[in-house]
Structures are given as C-alpha cells and as structure tokens.
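Exercise 4. Each item below gives a protein and its sequence. For each, produce the structure-token representation.

Item: AcrR family transcriptional regulator (Streptosporangium sandarakinum).
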Amino acid sequence: MTEGLRERKKRQTRQRISEVATGLFVERGFDHVTIAEVAAAAEVSVNTVYNYFEAKEDLVLPPEEASPQRLADIVRARPPGVSAARAVLDHLREEARRRDRRLGLTKGFGRFLEMMRAAPTLTARLEELGSQMTDALAATLAEETGAARDAPLPRVVAWQLGSLHSLVLQEIGRRTSAGQRPDVIAEAVLELLDAVEDVLGERVLTYAIRKD
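Answer:
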C-alpha cells in the first residue's frame, strides 16, 4: 500500500525528533538532556514527543528497531528447509555485509556507543531487551516444534542463539571502541559468525527446520 501524505508526515516528524534527540544525547549525554529540550530543538511540543515516543529511552532505542521480537521474527520469516539457527546466522551475515545500522556498522557509531554506555537506564534497557528476545524466541520455537512452553530444548536453543546475537553486538562494540572502521568490523563479524557455525553442533544447526 502506498504511503499517504498523513502517514509520510508522521514518519518524517518521528524521524526528525529521533535524529535531533540523538544528536543532543551524543553531544551532551543522555542524562543531561530533557524531553523539553528535545522538543524545543525539534520545534515540536513536549506532548508531540510523547505521542511518538512513550519513554525517553525509546528516542535512542525505538521499539520498531530494538524489538523484543527481533530474533523470533527472523526465525518466523525463514524459508522452507532452513533451521532456526541457520536463519539467524544468515540474517546476521546479511546485516554485516550491508553494514546495517541495527548492528551499529555505520560511521559515527563510536560516539553513539559511548553515550549509551554512560547512561545506566540505556544499558539496563539493552540487558532487558536481550532477555526478552531470548524468551520470545523460545516461545516461538516451542510453538513451531509442538513442545511444551517450558520444555528445555527450545529454551536451550533460544539461549544459544540469543547469546550469539549478544556476542556479535559485543564484538562490534569492542572493535568500535578501538577505532576500527565499519568495513573492517563487518569482515570481523563475518569471521566470527563462521567460527560460531563451526562450533555449533548438528543438533542446534538442524533444530526446527521449517517444513512448509
């Protein structure tokens, strides 16, 4: 469906607010910028900011990008014949190759990362998000395989894939802090994913292969 004028204006307003807020947070620190200051800089009202973003943290980690369903969505979208683990591995490889912003493989990510690490509420949100991703993936795997919701195998596989996702982000953060270029980091991520695939057992790599 073609985006209408109203929807396009709303998207543009949301994007402008987010970009203005991110610039202020990076420049001055997340905890030192108020919503009122974001609104003033973006030339909108405080109510407008809250209409688009329920919490201050959402300005940095918008739910549509930092979603608890990220890993579950990747697995649900896999084609027939592909397992859950290979779906996640392939998706992360594709994101690394195209220098996807979801992985932070963009110019200027270093200062953004420093800002996030300096804000306790943002680091707590990231930790909670990782746990939610694993829980959502475990529920999806249990549903697809017909296992009980609290069965151990779906939870173990989800934990391994969630840990893989966290490892990739940690590697990117470590190399970004060391001043490496996004293209160099992306190549390192691809090598890391190859290494992970080599050590994952067949039980995980062939678990939950989509049949149709």
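Check: The chain has ten helices and no strands.
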